[in-house]
Amino acid sequence: RPRQVTEEPSPVEAAGVTTLLHPELHERAGGAPPGPSAGSWILGALAMLAQSPTLLQRCFVPGVHGTRGVLAVRIWHWDSWDTILTDDRLPVASGRLVSGGCADARQLSLALLIKAYARHHGSYAALRTGRVTEMLVDFTGGCSEKIELGDDGEASAVWEELIEIRDRGALRGC
User: Fold this and answer.
1) CB proximity list for 125: less than 8 A, separation 6 or greater
2) How many CA atoms lie within 13 A of 81 on its CB side?
3) pTM of the model as a whole
4) Residues 116, 104: contact at Cβ < 8 Å?
């Protein structure tokens, strides 16, 4: 539970994200160390989501259930929002979170999102592979777009498009 991981859990915040998966702890817990096929897409998606504290906070459904050890997360599924309910217990090995850890141990929002997402998909094992774009759509309800970089002659047009996208507040990544 959050109070067992840290004495002062922080409210949902995005600041302080440095690493989302601890390879040595994941391996000790019986899983394969994160790599291209085991978690790097989660790392990318949540790092991008953490760029927008507003979007991150919107993933969590507020209410008294939170004080009772119940977590409610909104996930976009088949053109509507589903509310995923789960407990707030988190997998820990050697006193550290197995997944979703931040530089500031009080920040548990990413670990809680991963847990709810695993529940939505049936298990943590179901998250071994996936796509950054799909996870972002699931947590934001937005849409994704792939921009081809093209030839050097098109670089300025692509750059202008990226600037415009940034100015509209869209999440961006490679």
Assistant:
1) none
2) 13
3) 0.70
4) no
Q: Which residue has the tokens 């991981």?
A: 5
**Contact in structure between 134 and 120 (CB atoms under 8 Å):** no
Q: What gap in Å lies between CA 154 and CA 20, rounded to an integer?
A: 35
Which tokens belong to 114? 């991963």
Q: Where are the beta strands (DSSP E) in the chain?
A: 70-77, 80-87, 92-93, 96-97
Residues 14, 20, 22, 25, Cα dihedral to 10°: 80
Model pLDDT, residue 84: 93
Decide: 113 and 17 in contact? Cβ < 8 Å: no
Among the ranges given (126-130, 141-145, 152-156), the one the predictor scored with the smallest mean pLDDT: 152-156
**Which two tokens mark 124?**
């943590």
How far CA 169 is from CA of 7, 94, 142, in Å, comes to 34, 39, 12
Cβ atoms of residues 93 and 8 within 8 Å: no
